[in-house]
Specification:
This protein is mainly α. It has helices at about 5-15, 20-30, 35-45, 55, 60-75, 80-90, 95-100; strands at about 20, 75-80. Helix 2 runs antiparallel to helix 3 (about 35-45).
Amino acid sequence: MRTDNDHAAELAAARELASLSKIEFVMSCMEFGLLSPPEAIAAARGEIPESFTHVVESLSPMQRDYACVYWAGARQINRADPFIAAVAAAAGISDDTLDDLFQEQRA
């Protein structure tokens, strides 16, 4: 019989492995209403979307530089990335919503 700890460990492992291409991530964010179409276009170009800027501005200078370079150059977005976690937390996005966002692309 699986315990709550087993379930929690499996969920943590799945979250660690979950990723989307940047375009899949941006499209999912738009589908979930987390990015407007103009923000999604900017994000696809590698710009920090306006709705993410308050998170970026709250970071230390070194973290801010990392976030900007990471976002501009990323081709794959990982569910467990600290930047994604920070943006989700600041925007009030639940873990369940983030899990749904990182599900395999919907048809």
